Amino acid sequence: GAGVSQSPSNKVTEKGKDVELRCDPISGHTALYWYRQSLGQGLEFLIYFQGNSAPDKSGLPSDRFSAERTGGSVSTLTIQRTQQEDSAVYLCASSSQGARTGNTIYFGEGSWLTVV
Amino acid sequence: KQEVTQIPAALSVPEGENLVLNCSFTDSAIYNLQWFRQDPGKGLTSLLLIQSSQREQTSGRLNASLDKSSGRSTLYIAASQPGDSATYLCAVNGGNNRLAFGKGNQVVVIP
């Protein structure tokens, strides 16, 4: 596609429910990133994919968070047993290669998650 | 751990004035630095990317400089317009597959 596409754009869920957030990167981009932006906070790195593998999962805040990528394209971020502190904007980004090549990183519009 | 600071956190300027936004980072071993714009309720839009070997990049009214040794970058926006009102984010790429972000400069341009 023309840009990074994320869905849903907005999600309200009850505490304790599971949610899935989807990211469709720019066509041909091998690197994919998930970040989280909480109100009044900076962007927090969650996970990085190169192709289908995730060499860096160190940013995932707890074992309730997981992510996968299939076919070197679409990625899903899953949050199990959601808590109110999970409320944030979840931003996906992609680039044509990994971070060490210095390519521009493009972000999607984000998925706005509210846990009530 | 890379720490990125953006000063000022918020500023208001009258239309037509030049904007100067500052970003500082603690670890000078970087691959590049990227400036983004974020409008309320929206994602991030890439403005300029400066490689570590470069000293500045220009795009239209925007100019970004990089002084890697002193850990600083400055974004200049010439002749500001109300449409420039947004939050501007500085992100440093240290080559470890993650960007380190500042908390942003929130800009309001007053017509």
Order of helices and strands of chain A: EEEEEEEEEEE
What about the largest sheet of chain B?
A: 6 strands, mixed
- Number of distinct beta strands of chain B: 11
Biggest chain pair interface: A-B, 28 and 26 residues
Query: What value does the Rg of chain B take, in angstroms?
Result: 13 Å
Task: Give me the number of helical elements of chain A.
Answer: 0
Number of strands of chain A: 11
Oligomer: heterodimer
Distance between the termini of chain B: 40 Å
Amount of helix of chain B: under 10%
Form type of chain A: globular
Specify Rg of chain A, calculated over alpha carbons.
Answer: 13 Å
Unreliable stretches covering 5 or more consecutive residues of chain B: none
- Helices and strands of chain B, in order, run as EEEEEEEEEEE
The major sheet of chain A is characterized as: 7 strands, mixed
Query: Percent of residues of chain A in beta strands?
Result: over 45%
Helicity range of the residues of chain A?
under 10%
**Average pLDDT for all residues of chain A:** 91
Low-confidence stretches of chain A: none
Strand content of chain B: over 45%
Query: Helix/strand/pairing class of chain A, anyone?
Result: mainly beta
